[in-house]
Amino acid sequence: MANTQNKPKKRDDVVLGPTGRPYNGFPTPGRLDSHGPARIIALCNQKGGVGKTTTSINLAASLAEYGRKVLAVDFDPQGALSAGLGIATHDVTTIYDLMLDTKRDAHDAILQTHVDGLDLIPANIDLSAAEVHLVNEVAREMILARVLRKVQNEYDVILIDCQPSLGLLTVNALTAAHGVLIPLECEFFALRGVALLIETIEKVQDRLNPSLELDGLLATMYDSRTLHSREVLERIVETFGDKVFETVIGRTVKFPDASVSGVPIIEYAPQHDAAQAYLRLARELVHRGAVA
Fold first, then answer.
1. Cα 146 to the chain's mean position, in Å?
2. Partner of 181 at 20 to 30 A CA spacing, among 41, 47, 55, 267?
3. pLDDT digits over 135-174, tens only?
4. Structural domains in the chain?
5. HSE-up of 267 (CA within 13 Å, CB side)?
6. 8 backbone dihedrals φ, ψ, rounded to 5°
7. Which residues of 20-43 are buried (b: 16+ CB within 10 A; e: fewer)?
8. Could you tell me whether strands 111-112 and 118-121 are parallel, antiparallel, or unpaired per DSSP bridges?
9. Is pLDDT of 2 > 70?
10. Average pLDDT, the chain
11. How far is CA 89 from the centre of its chain?
């Protein structure tokens, strides 16, 4: 049976997307003549299982597909981003090593992935000790920013995949970032926690990083067949308006299948609606000016 979760609907000769707004496919961005400095985007949500790592992997690969030079930073001790890109994280230099020794060359931890134009700084379970080790450090909230500053000019986009928490690691990511992208599952309890995350973002803006912007909220795991999913999406749009991306990511088994294979979905099933949705999200980010 064909996947119809993200198919636009037509009403009075106006094509509407799942968000209820006029559907826009967004033009394919042109290639860049040069690279850098990177815009840093943190993908955050304190709730787990909302598609944060899936979005990090597939958005990074989609931006690379459009000629952007991308660095993905695995900032979750579970190391799911690294595993999803097929990278083994034992006996390699990780983001944890760079944060403990900021004088260390950040290039020591950068690994090339099999996706052309996409590099990775991996993470593993060692990162879970970071908050304990860094608690007495001066300006501990800015350590990641100092690490990324050393390689920022070499990339167009740096995506930080945060852990499901609002602790010191996430505050580090928000302090280092220029923008925040919030993946939000189309489920009621996922919606409830967004207010706390927005409050944390505003505190970081006020105290640590005044230039931080909310790039947008991305509705994930959407299933147009369920009334609940449609109602939650409608509520998200009512609450956040234009801050909600027009692109909506549907629920599909292709995502875990691709993760097991260690490849982005645009490689695993390039013609699938889910792959096309992430390519559309990359185009929308460029269209919005969140990415060069």
1. 20
2. 267
3. 888 899 999 999 999 999 999 999 999 999 999 999 999 9
4. 34-288 (3.40.50.300)
5. 21
6. -65, 150
7. eeebeebeebeeeeebeebbbbbb
8. antiparallel
9. no
10. 91
11. 20
Beta-carbon-side half-sphere exposure of residue 153 (alpha carbons within 13 Å): 1
Distances (CA, A) of 270 to 255, 263, 290: 12, 11, 24
* Predicted pLDDT of residue 16: 65
In this structure, are residues 72 and 118 in contact, taking their beta carbons and an 8 Å threshold? yes
Residues linked to residue 158 through DSSP beta bridges, in sequence order? 40, 71
Q: Which residues of 182-204 are buried (b: 16+ CB within 10 A; e: fewer)?
A: bbbbbbeebbebbeebbebbeeb
How many contiguous H segments (helices) and E segments (strands) does the chain have?
12, 10
- In angstroms, the CA 244 to CA 261 distance is 30
To the nearest 10 degrees (0 to 180), the angle between helices 168-176 and 194-207 is 60
Average pLDDT score over residue span 8-17: 55
Full-model pTM: 0.92
- For residue 129, give both structure tokens: 């000790």
pLDDT at 260 over 80: yes
* Three-class DSSP labels, 46-80: CCCCCCHHHHHHHHHHHHHHCCCCEEEEEECCCCH
pLDDT computed for residue 6 by the predictor: 54
Q: Quick check: 104 and 132 in contact, CB under 8 A? A: no
11: helix, strand or coil: strand
Tokens of 78: 């579970």
